[in-house]
Write a sequence for this structure.
């Protein structure tokens, strides 16, 4: 069991047992094992160095969370 | 015909015509439907995969049809963002076309798509604020140079296993931007360089999306012209929707088909560019010399023979419009048929040994307009024998069959590989509805709507009994579409489908 929670720009990011939640909504993501990069349907053109960075980018760059 | 020009070279009246057409589509709600078609597609079906290029080619073609319709200009083409000369000071970013960079908060405040004039929508279609751009903020790289485009165009093959962002070597993957250790991330870089609204799945909110993808499409076109012996890959073996003859995800029916095979030839679907790179040969209107014996549709079989062991006979079939066609042999020989096209004797579409009566071969397939070539040989390279060959068009395409809520199940079958059956049904009051299949086939069910055949709601493989599909959810009033296919793109089988209010 591992759980991590942080608040970023008024949004709650929870990473729990490999699951990512932003404001309690589960965010599907893909891990590129070889390159150790994370990416998601929300941001199809970029990869990130950690799940936390991916979550922050989703908050900043998508109209779902940034609106 | 769509004439696609370098966006920087458009005259002021061409700029006005294009901007007005885009604003008209926005006002009519059509532009936002395009945004949602991209945003709600399964990411792995349209990005990071072979269909990335044909999916976006068809998507641009569809927008172009709409732009031509509202502008009344049948030759209006989407201009391309010529990256090497398209940085911040280029005239395409002037206020008479795209408007420029965002302000310190990233908000676009000038040009036709400025704050107050243009609202972006989120992936649910809800208006969610102004258009944003942050040129060069997300990357330290410059836009690709001409030398880097030349480098890209030497990459072969088209794509390679595992058909994703790790494919290498792969022209598609390099152009898409996942092989950027040795060069720019071409397509991905364009999105990241503009930043803001160009970053998420709703990126078509920024009209530069279409000019960007027009450049991507042009480079694929140039690659095809330079390397005529290379072709789309794969024919089979990739996930459904990626193989050359699979229908592509979130792509509606139109006068051209929805498979990669239907959009391989830009010239054949009416696209012309104002200028190609110096090393690219011009497309020729008849790319292939007329080869093969003409075989006309619906005029009865013609007889022929393989008179020497190992001989091949080639037939030329001119398909006038998108429809289902059956090409088959008859007689006592064990024939083997390979179908090539459109407009190419190199590009194999499919092959068949014994799909017809006895040992005859038979191919049943949807074909777009174009010229196709059927190669006939005998299964045994030592044999000789007679056969007859014919091509027939299937009956007039029927309208989408209708399912009635709570009526008995409708029986059907996936009778050729890659077939998908579409049904529509009406929901008259908001309630839980169950759409399910029964029978011996491993079906895969996709639900679309309301009132839009391209809006994917949910997909299901095996929630029904055994390998059947079942979707149960609350549906509001409207028209819905259920699509059934076989889980395996290579298999066929019978099933029944029903919709009930429970
Ligand atoms: Cu793109």
């Amino acid at each position: 069991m591992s759980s991590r929670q942080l608040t970023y720009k008024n949004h709650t990011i929870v990473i729990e047992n490999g699951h990512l939640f932003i404001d309690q909504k589960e965010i599907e993501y893909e891990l590129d094992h070889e390159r150790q990069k994370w990416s998601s349907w929300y941001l199809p053109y970029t990869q990130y160095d950690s799940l936390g960075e991916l979550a922050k980018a989703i908050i900043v760059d998508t109209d779902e969370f940034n609106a | 015909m769509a004439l696609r020009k370098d966006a920087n070279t458009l005259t002021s009246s061409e700029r006005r015509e294009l901007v007005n057409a885009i604003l008209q589509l926005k006002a009519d709600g059509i532009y936002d439907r395009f945004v949602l078609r991209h945003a709600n597609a399964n990411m792995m079906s349209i990005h990071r995969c072979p269909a990335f290029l044909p999916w976006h080619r068809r998507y641009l073609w569809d927008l172009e049809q709409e732009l031509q319709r509202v502008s009344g200009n049948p030759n209006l083409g989407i201009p391309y963002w010529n990256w090497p000369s398209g940085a911040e000071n280029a005239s395409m970013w002037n206020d008479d076309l795209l408007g420029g960079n965002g302000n310190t908060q990233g908000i676009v405040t000038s040009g036709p798509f400025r704050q107050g004039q243009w609202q972006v929508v989120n992936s649910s279609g809800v208006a969610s604020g102004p258009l944003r751009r942050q040129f060069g903020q997300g990357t330290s790289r410059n836009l690709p140079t001409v030398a880097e485009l030349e480098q890209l165009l030497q990459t072969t093959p088209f794509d390679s296993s595992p058909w994703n962002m790790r494919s290498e070597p792969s022209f598609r993957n390099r152009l898409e931007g996942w092989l950027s250790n040795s060069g720019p991330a071409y397509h991905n870089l364009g999105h990241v360089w503009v930043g803001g609204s160009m970053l998420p799945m709703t990126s078509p909110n920024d009209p530069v999306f279409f000019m960007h993808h027009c450049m991507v499409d042009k480079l694929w076109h140039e690659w095809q012209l330079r390397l005529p012996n290379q072709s789309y890959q794969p024919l089979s073996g990739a996930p459904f929707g990626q193989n050359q003859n699979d229908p592509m995800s979130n792509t509606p029916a139109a006068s051209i088909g929805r498979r990669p095979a239907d959009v391989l030839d830009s010239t054949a679907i009416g696209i012309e560019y104002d200028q190609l790179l110096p090393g690219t040969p011009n497309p020729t209107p008849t790319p292939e010399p007329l080869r093969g014996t003409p075989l006309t549709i619906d005029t009865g079989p013609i007889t022929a023979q393989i008179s020497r062991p190992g001989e091949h006979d080639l037939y030329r079939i001119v398909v006038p419009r998108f429809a289902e066609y059956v090409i088959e042999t008859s007689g006592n020989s064990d024939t083997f048929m390979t179908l090539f096209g459109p407009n190419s004797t190199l590009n194999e579409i499919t092959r068949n040994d014994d799909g017809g009566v006895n040992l005859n071969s038979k191919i049943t397939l949807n074909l777009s307009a174009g010229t196709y070539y059927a190669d006939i040989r005998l299964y045994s390279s030592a044999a000789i024998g007679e056969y007859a060959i014919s091509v027939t068009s299937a009956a007039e395409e029927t309208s989408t069959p209708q399912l009635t809520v709570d009526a008995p199940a409708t029986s059907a079958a996936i009778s050729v590989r890659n077939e998908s059956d579409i049904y529509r049904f009406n929901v008259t009051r908001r309630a839980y509805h169950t759409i399910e299949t029964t029978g011996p086939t491993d079906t895969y069910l996709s639900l679309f709507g309301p009132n839009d055949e391209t809006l994917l709601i949910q997909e299901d493989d095996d929630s029904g009994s055994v390998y059947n599909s079942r979707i149960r959810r609350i549906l509001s009033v409207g028209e819905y579409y259920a699509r059934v296919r076989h889980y395996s793109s290579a298999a066929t089988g019978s099933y029944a489908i029903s919709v009930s209010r429970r």
Observations:
- Chain A has a mean pLDDT of 89.
- The CA atoms of residues 1 and 17 of chain A lie 6 Å apart.
- The beta strands of chain A are 3-8, 11-16, 19-22, 25-27, 30-32, 37-40, 43-48.
- The pocket of copper (II) ion is lined by residues B 187, 191, 213 (CB under 6 Å).
